[in-house]
Amino acid sequence: MYNERIIVLKEIDTIDKDGYRTNKTYVEIYKCWANINNLYGKELYSAYTVDLQNTLNCKVKYCKLLKDTFLNLSDNNRKKYKVKWNDIIYDISMVDFMSFNKKNVVFKLVNNT
């Protein structure tokens, strides 16, 4: 059941009139409904070993925009994308296309605050 509203954001650098980077800002690229769950079982214990116990599973419905945005994205470029949920901005640690079933996509979200 998709009962939580999320926003996928892309980080952009703003440049002042002198050509210097100023604050990082985020632009909305996608808004959708999601199912958000905590990690549990083996997945939770594995997360503790790499200090990622603050990770959430965020399942959304598959769409072409998500495929085009995240499928062949390098780790470095993925860091430019975030998910906002309940007024908290989360890093995306992984994107799982669920064996390419074209039904669901799962984001692993990490709260680094």
The N- and C-terminal alpha carbons lie at a distance of 28 Å
Q: Rg, please?
A: 15 Å
- Low-confidence spans: none
Q: What shape does the CA trace take?
A: globular
Q: What's a concise summary of this model?
A:
By secondary structure, this protein is α+β, with helices and mostly antiparallel strands. It has three helices and six strands; from the N terminus they run E-E-H-E-H-H-E-E-E.
Please give a structural write-up.
The protein is α+β, with helices and mostly antiparallel strands. The chain is built from 3 helices and 6 strands, in the order E-E-H-E-H-H-E-E-E. It has a 6-stranded antiparallel barrel with strand order 1-2-3-6-5-4. The longest helix is centred in the middle third of the chain and has 8 residues. The two termini are 28 Å apart.
Which terms summarize this structure?
alpha+beta; 113 residues
Chain-wise SSE layout:
Blueprint: E1 4-15, E2 21-38, H1 42-49, E3 55-61, H2 64-70, H3 75-78, E4 81-85, E5 88-96, E6 104-110
Antiparallel strand pairs: 1-2, 1-4, 2-3, 3-6, 4-5, 5-6
